[in-house]
Amino acid sequence: MARNEDALVIIDVQRDFCPGGALAVNDGDAVVGPINALQERFGAIILTQDWHPADHASFADNHAGAAPFSLVEAAYGPQVLWPVHCVQGAPGADFHPDLRTDRADLILRKGYRRAIDSYSAFFENDRATPTGLAGYLRERGLTRLVFAGLATDYCVRFSAVDAARLGFASCVVMDACRAIDLDGSLAAAREEMRAAGVALTSSGDL
Q: For the structural domain made of 6-51+95-205, what CATH number should be given?
């Protein structure tokens, strides 16, 4: 059972990451039911939302001749070039229509700066520019964070690892997540999360 200091952090359950979307995660919409059920067990709920300008530097279309899922070297390190997705105000940026959003205390938008991507709910991809989420959680006395959503190996992974690095107890509900699994990225994500002290669990064992 969730405690007063626990928060459920729901990562990027948006149309473009679900089947039929521009950057669909295989079986991505299967997370909606488990996440809605989890919400009943928490008093504090945070949603994150990818929110990119159309000319975002992480979009392959904005690099002449670049293919989606190729790598470029950004000022902050390697950057995957993605298909255009979750554009500000476009339908693909909307939350999945079946996801409960009415109980959210906070909706955190990320990736809105043109020149830098943002996987983590806590930092831009330069690993230095904060989103402000850590301060919000600490002000509210929320010390244990339970993560679910899309995708396991990117935004969930970076968020959960950063949470642990910042001193929060961090847990990922694996059956309430789905992965892109690009070139073994899911296995790497599991290894990195465990090494960082992130607990990997299931809804039934939470």
A: 3.40.50.850
